[in-house]
């Protein structure tokens, strides 16, 4: 009896007190202070993911009617599938160099590439090359979705993109 009491006091990790506020998908049995910390971080991550998802939805709602793009659609039900740091847009009939230069002249600097087609470095004898790999590499632009991006900046980016295609 004394042995089991001492064992519980010395080895706290073997006999954790389970926090009842743990989300359903969080199945680890850590001591209470670790689980409280982890649950807090998990909830913070959920909040950041939701904010980024809202920014992606905003870009999509502003640009969906423009016929010059291929826009990835977001899953509104389960928005945890993709945590965007940037929202990729594929231009249908144009290389991304001109629009990136147009935007950089207006002090909007987007990342130059998102996807690199590495098949140009290898010889494929038996495999056929994917059809759209070069198009995605050359025609993709990325709209920022980070924590520091606000609606005002998003409106400026979207407004300049629309202005580019109206000329």
Labels describing this entry:
167 residues; mainly alpha; Aspartate Aminotransferase, domain 1
Describe this structure in a few short sentences.
The protein is mainly alpha-helical. The protein is built from five helices and three strands; from the N terminus they run ααββααβα.
Query: CATH homologous superfamily, by name?
Result: Aspartate Aminotransferase, domain 1
Straight-line N-to-C gap: 84 Å
Percentage of residues in strands: 5-15%
Return Rg in Å: 24 Å
> Which geometry do the CA atoms define?
elongated
Model description:
- Helix 2 (32-63) runs parallel beside helix 5.
- The protein has five helices and three strands; from the N terminus they run ααββααβα.
- The model has no long low-confidence stretch (mean pLDDT 77).
- The protein has helices spanning 2-10, 32-63, 96-105, 133-139, 151-166; strands spanning 69-70, 86-91, 140-144.
- The radius of gyration is 24 Å and the shape is elongated.
- It has a single domain (2-166), classed as Aspartate Aminotransferase, domain 1 (Alpha-Beta Complex), CATH 3.90.1150.
- The longest helix is centred in the first third of the chain and has 32 residues, at 32-63.
- Strands 1-2-3 form a three-stranded antiparallel beta sheet.
- The N and C termini lie far apart (84 Å).
- It is 44% helix and 8% strand.
- The protein is mainly α.
Topology, element by element:
Layout: H1 2-10, H2 32-63, E1 69-70, E2 86-91, H3 96-105, H4 133-139, E3 140-144, H5 151-166
Antiparallel strand pairs: 1-2, 2-3
Helix pairs in contact: 2-5
